[in-house]
Amino acid sequence: MEHVNGTYIEQLIFESLSKTDDCFGVFDQNDQLIFCNDSLAEMFGTTKVIATGQTFSSLIEHCYLHNVGVIVETTDLDHWLHQAGKKRRTQEYRRFEIDLHDQRWLQVTEQLVADDHIFLFATDITKTKLVEAELTSHSNNLFKLATTDELTGIHNRRHFFCLADIEQKRCQRIGTHSSILMLDLDEFKEINDQFGHAAGDQVLKDFCQTINDQLRPYDIFGRLGGEEFAILLPETDNATALLIAERLRESVEKMTALYGSCQIKVTVSIGLSSYTKGTLDQAMSSADRCLYQAKSSGRNQISLLERTCCSA
Questions:
Q1: Which helix (H) or strand (E) holds 233?
Q2: Most buried residue, 38, 193, 198, 311, by CB count within 10 Å?
Q3: Are residue 257 and residue 168 in the same domain, yes or no?
């Protein structure tokens, strides 16, 4: 094999690194950029002539002050630079991702070599990130379709039972009460018959929004089917649950659903069950019996066990 001159190979490597679309640069032991190609200079929002000889800190400061190149998300640049400086030479090999103001993403590799120099490589991964984002969005949409009631936007039956079962078991482990509310819109069939199913759909959406506005962030609200709904109130005893239920009943009573020129009034009946032991199914059955009692006693009421709290 013909002997290849070492200097010639070095020239080939140098020329390749200078022309590649990938970013390449060398920082010396003082963190001064002693060599870079055009792509790396562009990563810092400047030119090779200007970038060469500057420190890492000054290059980042240029990006930060002029909103070019690397996105530096901080309100305290000095602190950011201090933290970055602590990381730069703690590992022989380091890989991370950065995003640029021109909406590109780069995967950066820092290689610590002899004399405390850093070789920096960066490859454009924008297409990969876009595909990842699209897949994540698609996955989130599928999850939403699988867990959300399409009309009202709250948990569907299956997801409600899944979340409620997990939360109910958590409350049992720590020995606190949970409460279940079963809700049923009064005379909803008559609303559909009088105003039409589209108007009924609007009533359901307004009803769910009204209920959601009154719930705590950790309460679990789901549509079981038709005009029947359930709410799990974690770490909530009977007395507190009754106060919440009454607030919900009053809010629905004051609500007016608008559909075209129609103003539709609606009320809700509620069954309440509080418990520290037993299964979710048992609690739901108890609340369902209370709901039946509230409906039988004249509607627009809250029933718990043998007690019925009537509307004013």
A1: strand 228-234
A2: 38
A3: yes
Task: Indicate which residue of 227, 228, 235, 246 is catalytic.
Answer: 227
| CA 201 vs CA 175, 185, 188, 192, 252: distances in Å | 40, 12, 10, 9, 15
Instruction: State residue 311's pLDDT score.
Output: 47
Which of 129, 156, 176 is a domain's end point? Answer: 129
Q: 135 in a domain, yes or no?
A: no
**Which range of residues forms the domain containing residue 57?**
6-129
Give 308 or 301, the one with higher predicted confidence: 301
Taking a C-beta distance cutoff of 8 angstroms, is the pair 296, 309 a contact?
Answer: no
Whether residue 170 lies inside any domain: the answer is yes
Q: 188: closest CA among 158, 147, 223?
A: 223
| Rounded Cα–Cα distance for residues 269 and 253 (Å) | 10
Distance of CA 172 to the CA centre of its chain: 28
User: Is 40 in contact with 122 (CB distance < 8 Å)?
Assistant: yes
| Same domain for 67 and 170 | no
In three-state secondary structure terms, 146 is: helix
pLDDT digits (tens, 9 = 90+) for 124-174: 999 999 999 999 999 999 998 999 999 999 999 999 999 999 998 888 888
Containing H/E element for 239?
Answer: helix 238-254
Active site residue 2: no
